[in-house]
Write a structure and sequence with these properties.
The chain is mainly alpha-helical and 209 residues long. It contains 10 helices and 2 strands, in the order ββαααααααααα. It has a two-stranded antiparallel sheet with strand order 1-2. The chain is globular, with a radius of gyration of 19 Å.
């Protein structure tokens, strides 16, 4: 990534970038300005992240994942604007942008397919088709992403004093009873028991279901 004459190098395993080799080949030599938009966010993060990781524990892993998600979104946007990219590649790029949009708004209970489609200037039916091609649905994807965030917070020692219901509400589950049913259906146990079993919650966490 380049900001004027400055370059901010970053190294990560190729397997972590969810783009096909032939799609990345289209981006070879492409300049991503770091002076504005998502490029500026990545440039700033790349400069500051190394000096901030010590002592962050599990949060460092999540922050690194967020940086990679942002980089993927930038590459996906570039792919969508490249005139010689295949239709399949453009669809994958659009899906990546949709994923990034959803991830940035998981805490919003009002996140709906209609809102997502409108933000990307596509029909709701087209949005459904993108997810059906991946063997899932929009609602299921949102639900699982929210559950992933909840699970990470339940395992985070820095949040061990925060009630399960508060963590659930933070990630778009305002109804505690509904959240508990959804969490149990995926993980096989109520969230409070999961937290207590992993030793990362207060003594009465098992009762917060």
């Amino acid at each position: 990534m380049t900001t004027g004459a400055r370059q901010d190098p970053g190294v990560f395993p190729r397997a972590l970038l969810p783009l096909r080799d032939r799609d990345l080949g289209t981006l070879t030599g492409t300049r991503v300005p770091g002076t504005g938009g998502p490029g500026a966010l990545i440039s700033s993060l790349a400069r500051q992240l190394p000096g901030q990781l010590d002592g962050m524990g599990a949060a460092a892993h999540r922050l690194g994942g967020a940086a990679l998600d942002l980089l993927t979104a930038v590459f996906a946007a570039r792919l969508d604007r490249a005139g010689d990219v295949s239709r399949d590649a453009r669809h994958r790029a659009l899906l990546l942008r949709v994923h990034a949009y959803i991830d940035a708004r998981l805490g919003d209970p009002g996140l709906t397919p209609g809102r997502i489609a409108a933000a990307h200037h596509i029909a709701v039916r087209h949005l459904y088709t993108l997810f059906e091609a991946q063997g899932t649905s929009v609602a299921e994807w949102i639900r699982l992403r929210r559950l992933e965030r909840v699970r990470a917070d339940l395992l985070d020692p820095a949040l061990r004093a925060r009630p399960v219901s508060a963590i659930a509400a933070r990630w778009g589950f305002p109804n505690a009873a509904h959240f508990s049913r959804v969490f149990r259906a995926v993980h096989g146990e109520p969230p409070g028991e999961f937290r207590a079993r992993t030793g990362n919650g207060p003594a009465d966490a098992v009762n917060d279901r």
